[in-house]
Design goal:
With 252 residues, this protein is α/β, with parallel strands linked by helices. It has one domain: Rossmann fold (3-Layer(aba) Sandwich), CATH 3.40.50.150. Strand 2, helix 4 and strand 3 form a beta-alpha-beta unit. The longest helix has 12 residues. The protein is globular, with a radius of gyration of 17 Å.
Length: 252
C-alpha cells in the first residue's frame, strides 16, 4: 500500500521508508500535519510548539516545509532518538526536542507564534481547564491547531454495533469537529476559524493501517464497516484572543 497520495503533495516528497520508521501512532503524521498547516498561517522564523510530537516527524515536516523553529515535546518518546532523527535530517539548528508533559510546560508566557498537536490533543485537551492553561503560552493573535482521529458525529448512547468489537473505553475521548468548536469557543480564550473533517478521512485511515499494521484486523474491519459514518479525521484552528499569564495550578 502506497504512503503517497495526490491530496498531500508535500508529504509525497518524503521517503516512504522514513515515514514508516517514524510512525508513532495510528495516523500518518505527515498527512495530518500538511492538512492542518493548510488552515494555518505559518511563516519562516515563527516559534512553534509541537505537542506530543512522537517521533518528531511532524516537527521535521514543519521545519522543512515552512522554515519555522519547532520545540518538539513529548512525555514518552525517546528524546535522544528524536534528536538523532532531527540531526540526520540536517535540521538540528531549528528543532529542539524535549521530554515534558503537555500539562507542565516549561516555557514563558506569550512565547509561541503557534501551537500544534497531531493526533494526540484528545488525550488531554478535552479537559475543560486545559485551554485556559495552554492559551497563555501563545502570543496575542497566535494560532492553535490540532488534527487527528475523531468522530464525524457524536455518539449518543451505545456504541454502534459495527464498532463494538474494536471500541475501547479510552476512545470516548474522541469527538467531532463541532464538539471541538464548542469546547474551545466556550472558554473565550480563542476565536475558532476552522473546525471540520477531512473528506474521505476514513479512507486515509485505512491507507495508513494497511501500510503500517495490516494485521490490525479489528480496527481495519471496524473502519471498513463504518464507511466514514462515525470515524475519520478532524481538525480545529483558532487564534488566541488576548495575552494572559499561565496558571499551572489550575490543573493541579
Amino acid at each position: 500500500m502506497s504512503l503517497t497520495h495526490e491530496r498531500f503533495p508535500r508529504s509525497a516528497r518524503y521517503d516512504p521508508e522514513w515515514v514508516k520508521s517514524s510512525a508513532s501512532g495510528g495516523a500518518n503524521a505527515l498527512w495530518l500535519t500538511e492538512w492542518l498547516a493548510e488552515a494555518m498561517d505559518l511563516r519562516s522564523g515563527m516559534r512553534i510548539l509541537d505537542l506530543g510530537c512522537g517521533s518528531a516527524a511532524s516537527s521535521i515536516f514543519l521545519r522543512k516545509e515552512f522554515g519555522v523553529q519547532v520545540w518538539a515535546i513529548d512525555l514518552s518518546a525517546d528524546v535522544t532518538a528524536n534528536a538523532l532523527r532531527i540531526e540526520e535530517a540536517g535540521l538540528a539548528d531549528g528543532i529542539f526536542p524535549l521530554r515534558c508533559d503537555a500539562r507542565a510546560l516549561p516555557f514563558a508566557s506569550n512565547y509561541f507564534d503557534a501551537i500544534v498537536a497531531i493526533d494526540n490533543f484528545f488525550y488531554y485537551g478535552t479537559d475543560d481547564l486545559y485551554l485556559g492553561y495552554l492559551a497563555p503560552f501563545l502570543k496575542p493573535g497566535g494560532q492553535l491547531g490540532m488534527a487527528g482521529a475523531g468522530l464525524m458525529q457524536e455518539i449518543d448512547g451505545a456504541v454502534p454495533e459495527h464498532l463494538r468489537e474494536w471500541w475501547e473505553k479510552e476512545m470516548w475521548c474522541l469527538h467531532s469537529a463541532a464538539w471541538w468548536r464548542r469546547h474551545w469557543e466556550k472558554t473565550g480564550a480563542v476565536e475558532v476559524s476552522v473546525a471540520d473533517a477531512m473528506p474521505d478521512g476514513w479512507c486515509r485511515w485505512l491507507d495508513w493501517h494497511h501500510a503500517i499494521c495490516p494485521d490490525n484486523a479489528a480496527e481495519i474491519s471496524a473502519v471498513e464497516a463504518d464507511q466514514g459514518a462515525y470515524m475519520g479525521y478532524v481538525r480545529a484552528v483558532a487564534t488566541c484572543r488576548a495575552p494572559q499569564s499561565p496558571s499551572p495550578s489550575a490543573l493541579a
